[in-house]
Amino acid sequence: MEEWFIALDKSLDIPLYEQIYRQMKQDITEQRVPVGKKLPSKRKLSEFLSISQTTIEFAYGQLVSEGYIISVPRSGYFVQDIEELAYVEKQKVKEISIPERSQTAIDFSPGMVDPDTFPFTKWRKVAKDVIDEHAAHLLQLGDPHGDVELRNEIATYLYHSRGVICTPDQIIIGSGTEQLIPLIIRILGSDAVYAVEDPGYPLTHHVFDHNLRSAIPIAVDADGIDVDALQRTPATVAYVTPSHQFPTGSVLSAPRRAALLNWASSNSDHVIIEDDYDGEFRYASRPIPSLQGMDRGENVIYLSTFSKSLMPSLRIAYMVLPSALLERYRGAFIQYASTVPRIEQHMLARFMADGQFSRHLNRMRKIYRKKLHILKGTLSPYEPRISYSGDEAGMHIIVTVQSQQSESELADLALQKGIRVYSLGGYQSSAVQDFPSFLLGFGGLHEQDIKQGIDKLMAVWNIKKMDPR
Known about the structure:
Layout lengths: L15 H14 L12 H8 L3 H13 L3 E4 L3 E4 L26 E2 L12 H11 L17 H15 L8 E4 L2 H12 L5 E5 L3 H9 L4 E7 L2 E2 L1 H5 L5 E4 L13 H12 L5 E5 L15 H4 L5 E6 L11 E4 L2 H11 L8 H12 L2 H24 L6 E4 L6 E6 L5 H10 L2 E2 L1 E2 L13 E5 L5 H14 L9
Parallel strand pairs: 3-14, 5-6, 5-8, 8-9, 9-10
Antiparallel strand pairs: 1-2, 4-11, 6-7, 10-11, 12-13, 13-16, 15-16
């Protein structure tokens, strides 16, 4: 230990050695420093605090005399066991109660990815290639929009896989959509009125609330957001998930896509925020093209992330801004630094440039398609007491249970047996379904856990398999 954080105030009448003594004594009696810990040498501490060694010596001498520390010849000073000091009244440290998350054997979270199939070997090689003595420039701040190497790869990928038409200059990289959305709110101004899907992603609602922006809920059905209902509101900004609506899984139909784009082009203040958080994962056919690629009036902000396609902990997301909003963004945030470390940006860029990202996506589509097939096959014998929807894409489905019990009651019963499910009611502003419904994610579960989890869940809910006769 070469340092010890001590706040010295030279304006006080209390001598500096007394201030050092008091703070060290308090740290020791409150057990912030373990018994036997070596104190910094008088020379090191004097250099650290920019005071004389004599001052340190006075403070240490007082602590030694009172038994808080011990001096060992040719070794230094060490914290003494204050349990031996009967006269020391030790201050109790207030214990902070942290609510424990219930332990679950099976978690049907819609936000988890498969942890066993990540290409660690390829990622390790990319890291080794990027992090060497030639990468010293990556220690400095880079482009505030994100390094061009990654933006180039994202632009190419988006064009070929999602039909997004943009240049690398239009791409802004950030550490998650919850970090990018407030930036969008800033550039759209205080007069913008937001509409959101109902049900929808709760974190988005929280971000709007946190930024003092109210959001008008617009109902979602099998064809996606109700554009007619949107047009009857004063909303100027529509936040949508058209390729795979979260959480229902519905895909915005072609007529409604056209209607939504027409709504956006009908007024210069109208903007669509297209969140394409897991548009890559569609199993019955090719991924649905983006709204941004269909837009002719530059009215769509495209937003996406690598959380589902690669790993949630990577914390890299991006948005594609229309030209007019890009100029507004530059004017507002030109002094901002990128929130994503440059080394991680270059690792991802290399991973994409080498073709590893595309290969990983292709592999994961097959794995998730198989897991979805297992989930649906395991649920099938329990029909008609249960039904499911939203299986066209993504990494979860919606299961509806014909039960007189509420969603919270059924969820609690499952949790008591070590199974966590997610109520659809937690994603919508008002309960509208006739029967309780739940999101069942399958991305992070092993195939056997899916089978066992469903059978156990149905037993907990007292739902019998259909008689094959």
